[in-house]
Every structure is written in structure tokens, then in C-alpha cells.
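Bug #77: duplicate submission created two jobs. Keeping one. Sequence:
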Amino acid sequence: MSTDEPTPDDAFLERFLSSAFSVAEPDAAGFVESSEDAVRDEDRDEPLPKSVGRFVVLDVLGEGGSGRVLRAHDPSLGRDVALKIVRASLAADQAACERFVAEAHVCAGLQHPGIVPIHEFGRLDDGRPYFAMKIVEGQTFAELLRGATRGAAARGFVEIFEKVCQTLAFVHAHGVLHGDLKPHNVMVGSFGEVQVMDFGFARHATRDPGIGDVRRPSAPIDAGSGVGDGDGAGSSSRIRIGGTLAYMAPEQARGDDAAVSTRTDVFGLGAMLCEILTGRPPYQARTKAELLLRASKGWLDDARERLATCDAERELVDLALACLAVDPAERPADAGAVAHAVSSHLRSLAKRARDAELEAEKARAVAAHETRARRLTLALSVAVVAAVIVPALWMVRSAHERDERRGAAEHAVGAALE
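Kept job's structure:
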């Protein structure tokens, strides 16, 4: 029986998971479609501050359940920045604020073109932390994928994915795990820049000498995997999981911190590649509990079937399947290995395109040569024909003229004799 087929005990397990786990995403619809953090009803009317520190607030760039991103003007440098601020309703939530501060520190320590630079960190009068960062004008990768024509994956999407992998390779090389990889957390700028966003569930990692390149997490730098309920109030009977279930590795969905490693992020990369190739993330379900059940048990038959029947290059399908392996040991070691595979595939495509162009150019050259040869043959044939026929016609005409002169002479002689 397929590992993706529910058993009679799964209904009970689903109810248990629903009561025992609290997941850091807000609503069931969001889990089915892997949406961004939803805004809670009590936060919808949160007033917009006129200023934050020295920054003059202009408008809202984005809203989430745990924070909001504002467009603000920095008068000291004469530029606009993005301000990310913890929501007022979470001002007393120590875990949420600590996770927010950790995100600022992680991003500030990762200097890479694929990671938004942090300009400044501070706190409001009520103690809420905020940080200022570069504004990225553009769309999320999810928005670009939404409604895209399916079939063979557009090369542009794969090139965006390659940049995501390269950025994550840098992150992993610096001992950090992202923890929430999905197209919503990738911004594609107006000029083609690709940046990985939202390190709110990131954590530091240390190398495990017994497993080679795999990195095991040290103490999480967020509250996403600790004990507590979805509202931040402590409860020893509920395990909180940070991330997005539709893209989540089984060990992360089970809340198994000891098993989380760079290969967990690799699963997230494979989930993104699955959506690029098939139009949907690996997991889909009717309810949050069902989605948690599927993710924690690694029920991936639907994703594998979609990948097997999609109209994409075999190398990309094989890479997605490898990244989505239920057993972490069967996945590529880290994002660097995935980036290398994607880059090799794109170089192979470019080489095949060049070879095809060379073959086409060679075919055009051969066709042109054959055309010139045919024209030359025709010209030579005409010349040969002309060389043979023209003298023959001249000889015939000359003989005819001689005959005419001879006849005229004979006629004149006859007349004279008469």
C-alpha cells in the first residue's frame, strides 16, 4: 500500500494533531493554497503611526498576522525605506518580539545581494521592536507563478529559482537555516533582482561531524518550535511549529528539532520547484489538521504523480523528487548542492541551444551552398548549351546563305545564257 494512502487510524491521528499542535499560520484556506500570514480581525483597524523614530511614515506596504511593513521616509538621508514593526496586539508577547529581533539580527549578519539589507534597528515607546530595510519594488514569486502558463517550466522561473538556491547556499554556508521557504517569501524586483525575505523562523545551526555536510540546529533563534499555543500564551500540552505546511519537510511538521537541518530547507526548495513545474505545492488539504497530517507523514504521492506527468525537463523533475525525499538523508545535503544542479541544468540548456543554433547555421550554410551550386550548374549548362547551339545555328545560317547565293548566281548565269 502506498505510504500516501490514509489508514483507519488517520482520522484519530488528525484529531490528535489538531489538538496537540499549533501552527504559525492562521487559517485553513491559507494552508490549502499556502498563503501568507493572515491579518487577524483585531489587528485590521490598527492605526497607522505618523512617525517611527526619525522616519516619517507614508503608507502601508504589507500586512501580516505578526507584523506590518510600512513605507517611510528617512529625512536624514533623503530616501524611502521599508519599516517592519511588530503588531501592537503582540507588544506583550515576548516570544513574538524575540523572534522579530532574531530576524533582524540574522538578516543584518547575512550580507548578500539576495538578502534585503537592514539599515537600522530600534524600539517604539511601548517596547515593540522595528527595523528599517531597503524597499524592494516588484512582485513576490508567488504572484509571478499565479496564473502562469503551465507545461514546460518557463526558463525565467527556473532562473529565479537558481538565484534563490544560490542565496540559500550562502545562508547555509553561514550556519543559518531559513525555515519557511515558499514563493511568497521571494521578491522579484522590477529590474530582475531576486531576494529571499522573511527570516522570522530562521535558526542558527552547527555542523554535525557525524553527518558530514548536514547541519543540525543549535538552540532555535525563534519561538516557532518551542512550547506554546498559537496566541503566544504558554501551554505545555501544545507544540508550536513555525513555517508553512504546504511546503514543509516531515521532520519540521512533526516538530522534531533534532532532525531539522539544511536538508529541511532543501525540502522547501524542492517544494518551490514542484510548484514551478506543476503549478501547486506538494501538499493540499481541506483543513489545517489534515494538511499537518499529510506534511508530518510525508504523503507525497499526489506531488510525485504531478511531477511524473508534467511537461518539464527530466533533470528538473528528478531534482524536485530528490529534494522532496521523505528521508532527509536521501535529499541533497544543502542549498549549495541544489544550486549546482540547477546551474548545471541551465548551462546544459544553454549549450543545447547553442548547439541547435550552430546546427541551424550549418544547415543554412549547406542550403545556401547548394543553392549557389545549383545556380552555377544552371549557368554552366546555359553556357554549354549556348556554346554548342550558337555555332551550329551560325553554320546552318551560313550554309543557307551560301545556298541562296549559289542559287542566285545560277539564276543569273542561266539568264545570261538565254
